[in-house]
Amino acid sequence: MIKITRKVYISRNYKKLDCGGSIARTDIETVMDRLGFVNIGLPQSVCHNGIYHGIKNYVSYRKALRSIRPGDMIVLQYPMKIGFDEICGVSHKKGAKIVCLIHDLSSFREKTLTPEEEICRLNQCDVLLTHNHRMREWLSSHGCRVKMIDYEIMDYIHGASGKAHEVVDRNYSLFYVGDLSPATYGYIYDLARIMPQRDIYLYGHSPSEDLLAELPNLHFEGFAKDTDLMKSHKGDFGLSWYGTSLDFGIGKIGEYMEYNNPHKISLYFRCNSPVVVWSKGGRAKFIKDNHLGICVDSLRNLESRLSMITADEYREMVGNVERVNERLKNGRYLEDVLQQAEQYLLKQT
Questions:
Q1: How many other β-carbons are positioned within 10 Å of the β-carbon of residue 83?
Q2: Residue-wise pLDDT tens digits, 293-329
Q3: What confidence score (pLDDT) does residue 96 get?
Q4: Using CA atoms, how far apart are residues 85 and 102, in angstroms rounded to an integer?
Q5: Within the chain, how many helices (H) and strands (E) appear?
Q6: What is the domain partition of the chain in residue ranges?
Q7: CB 171 within 8 A of CB 198
Q8: Is the dihedral of CA 107, 112, 114, 119 positive or negative?
Q9: Are 6-155+331-346 and 174-329 equal in CATH topology?
C-alpha cells in the first residue's frame, strides 16, 4: 500500500487575476490551502512584467524540485509552460505521486503539441483530473493509460452571489459575458436577428457598434467584473456557446467545446442563472442531468425551447442552480475529486 505523507502544489506568479484562466487557477490554490495542501513553490504573486513573471515562475519550480519528498501527492495544474516533465521525473525518482488537473489540452486548442506528444507527457502522471467523460474518452482513444477522474465542474469561489431572478413573465431574456467581436462570436448578432422579441444583454468588450444600432434587442451593458455580475445582472439565462455558427461549434474553439468545460458556466451559476449550452458540448450531460438549463443542438431551436418553459420549470432550474452555486463557492467539486484521487493512490501497491 502507498502511504501519502504530504499533499502539495506549486504556486506561481500571475500577470493578472481578472481573467478566466487566472481566476480558475488561483481559486484552485485557495481551495487546496483550505484542505491543508502545502505550497512547495514560491508564494503566489501578481505582476504583469514579463521578465519578472518568467524569472519568478522558473525559480518557483526549481524550489519545488528541491522540496519534493517521498510520499508526496503533488497536484500540478496543466498545462505548465516550464518544468512539467522534470517535476514528473524527479517526483517518481523520489517516491512521490503526480495528480494532474487539466485546464486545457495544448494539442487540441493551441496546437502547440501533437496529440502523441501530449499523451506522452500526460502518461508521466499517476492520476489525471479530466473535465468530463468526453475528454476522458478522447485521451483514452489516443493512448492515455493513466487513471482518469472527471471533475463535474470547475469551482468558482470568490465573490458573493445576489438574489436569483424572479420570474416576471415568460418572455425570458439572455445574457452573455465575454468577447463580443463579430469575427469570433458572430453568432450573438445572428441570434438577435432570429429572436427579435428576446432581449439579449451583453457584458464584455469589442462589440460592433453598427450591429448594436441595427439590432434593438441587443443591449450592451459594458464591461463588468465577475463579482459585480454575481450581485446584479440583467438576463434570465446565461449563454455559453463558442464558435461562429448558430448550429454547432465551428472552428478551433468551437470544436474544442465538445471536450472542454467552459469556466464561464461556473460564473453563470454563481450568478444564480440557468444556462444555454450546446447539446454535444462537454458540460451538457451535467446540465441536463441536474436540470440546470437548456441544451440545444442549434441556437435556431432556442426560441421554441424557451417558449415551452413554464414559470414553475424556470423556478425549479434556479433552485437547482442555487444548490450548485453553494458547492462552487465552497470548492466542493475540487475537494471531491482530490479525495477520489487520494483514495485511488492509497489503494495502489
A1: 19
A2: 999 999 999 999 999 999 999 999 999 999 999 999 9
A3: 97
A4: 15
A5: 15, 14
A6: 6-155+331-346, 174-329
A7: yes
A8: negative
A9: yes
Q: Which cell goes with 34?
A: 483550505
Q: Are 237 and 175 in contact (CB under 8 A)?
A: yes
Instruction: Give the single-character DSSP code of 113.
Output: S
Instruction: Determine which helix (DSSP H) or strand (DSSP E) holds 72, and give its type and residue range.
Output: strand 72-78
Cis bond before residue 196 (omega within 30° of 0): no
**Element of type H or E holding 14:** strand 13-14
CB 202 within 8 A of CB 180: yes
Taken as a whole, the chain contains a residue count of 349
CA contacts within 13 A on the Cβ side of 202: 26
User: What CA–CA distance (Å, rounded) separates 3 from 343?
Assistant: 11
Min mean pLDDT across 6-10, 18-22, 113-117, 336-340 is at 18-22
One-letter amino acid at 148 equals M
Residues 6+ apart with CB under 8 A from 104: 78, 79, 110, 260
CB count, 10 Å around CB of 70? 12
Looking at residue 254, its pLDDT comes to 65
Topology of domain 6-155+331-346, CATH: Rossmann fold (3.40.50)
Predicted local confidence at residue 168, as pLDDT = 65
Asked if 189 contacts 218 with a C-beta cutoff of 8 angstroms, the reply is yes
Per-residue pLDDT, 289: 95
DSSP readout, 148-213? EEE-SS----SS---PPPP---S---EEEEEE--HHHHTHHHHHHHH-TTS-EEEEEE---HHHHH
User: Mind listing the pLDDT tens digit for each residue in 74-83?
Assistant: 999 999 989 9
Give buried/exposed letters for 151-186 (b at 16+ CB in 10 A, else e). bbbbbbbebebeebbebeeeebbbbbbbebebebbb
Say which CATH topology domain 174-329 has: Rossmann fold (3.40.50)
